[in-house]
Amino acid sequence: MMPAAARRLVGVFLTAAALLASGIPATALNVQPVIIDLLSSGRRTSTVLTLQNTFSTTVPVELTAHRLEVVDGELRETDVEAEDLLVFPAQATVEPGQSQAFRIQWVGDPEIQASQHFFVTVAQLPVVLPENQNAIQVLYNFKVLVSVGAPGAVSALAVQSVAIETGEDGVGRPVLTVSNSGNTYGYVGKNRLTLVQRAPNGDEILRESWEPEQLQQLMGLGLVPSGATRRLPINIRLPQPNGAVTVELTPVQDR
Q1: Are 234 and 209 within 8 A, CB to CB?
Q2: Which is nearest to 26 in space by CA: 43, 11, 10?
Q3: Looking at residue 97, what DSSP letter applies?
Q4: What is the DSSP letter of 127?
Q5: Mean pLDDT estimate for the chain
Q6: What mean pLDDT comes out for the span 214-233?
Q7: What does the alpha-carbon distance between residue 216 and residue 238 come to, in Å, rounded to a whole number?
Q8: Could you say which of 59, 135, 160, 237 would form a disulfide bridge with 177 (CB–CB 3.0 to 4.6 Å)?
Q9: Residue 215: what are its φ and ψ, rounded to 5°?
Q10: 7-149: which CATH number, 3.20.20.300, 2.60.40.10, 3.40.50.2000, 3.90.1150.10?
Q11: Whether pLDDT at 25 is above 80
């Protein structure tokens, strides 16, 4: 399972109360991978998504795909069903202890001019219970992020600004505004990030760098679609909730 922060982009949407009431372990269903990168043409137009059922009962599931868009710097799932992303089979029944493979395939324009993004939702369906049986059915829903880019296209990420947001705990944390002027998507979390904070009097009070693996633990992958601008909080506790913060992104090879 992924960390709680990343579960918001790929997530199992269950409340703690429902889990406690049901007694079902959070690992009863496992979906891999939860982030998929495809190309619009060539060999990487499709991949396989695998669902493992570790329940002691049969699990029926349904898969749907919806487009994503950037609204106010955040990724939002739309009501528009994807016609150019094929999910097969769309429904399946997975026996206890077994796995089911689903094919995710781009069937749209092979020469897209901008990256395309989707959530594929893997939804556990309710089962019909006997009339004399009362039970709470806890249904798992996973969201898998699928991104499609053109072969040879490149991203061009740039940090436009860095703000300091102060939480209810009084601690300041940085929020990046990152644009992408390239013709495919990019991941902020695949870069090395160096952050410098200066106090209001100009003194440097923090300078620290994070490698991609470390950065992804603090902010996830930080997807920025082509031609879009994202607002990306980073879970870093700043020594002061004021002053100025600057951030430098450095590409890391072979990531």
Answers
A1: no
A2: 11
A3: T
A4: -
A5: 88
A6: 96
A7: 18
A8: 160
A9: -65, -40
A10: 2.60.40.10
A11: no
Q: In the numeric block, which tokens belong to residue 63? A: 């898969």
pLDDT over 90 at 220, yes or no? yes
The model's pLDDT over 119-142, given as tens digits with 9 standing for 90+, comes to: 999 999 988 777 777 777 788 899
| Predicted confidence band of residue 57 (pLDDT cuts 50, 70, 90) | confident
The predicted structure's pLDDT at residue 254? 55
Tokens for 7? Answer: 């579960």
Enumerate long-range contacts of 199-208, CB under 8 Å, 24 or more apart: 199/240, 199/242, 199/243, 200/242, 200/243, 205/239, 205/240, 205/243, 206/238, 206/239
Token pair belonging to 86: 């094929």
Question: Which amino acid does the sequence have at 89?
Answer: P
pLDDT digits (tens, 9 = 90+) for 29-50: 899 999 999 999 999 999 999 9
Sequence spans of domains, the chain: 7-149, 157-251
What are the residues whose beta carbons fall under 8 Å from the beta carbon of 225, sequence distance 6 or more? 68, 70, 114, 115, 117, 147, 180, 185
DSSP H or E stretch at residue 2: none
Among 183, 190, 179, 198, smallest CA distance to 245 is for: 198
Class of domain 157-251: mainly beta
DSSP state of 112: -
Give the E-state strand segments of the chain in sequence order.
29-32, 35-39, 46-53, 59-71, 74-81, 85-88, 91-94, 99-106, 116-124, 141-149, 157-166, 172-180, 186-187, 191-198, 204-210, 223-224, 229-233, 244-251
Distance of CA 15 to the CA centre of its chain: 19
Cα-only R_g, the chain? 21
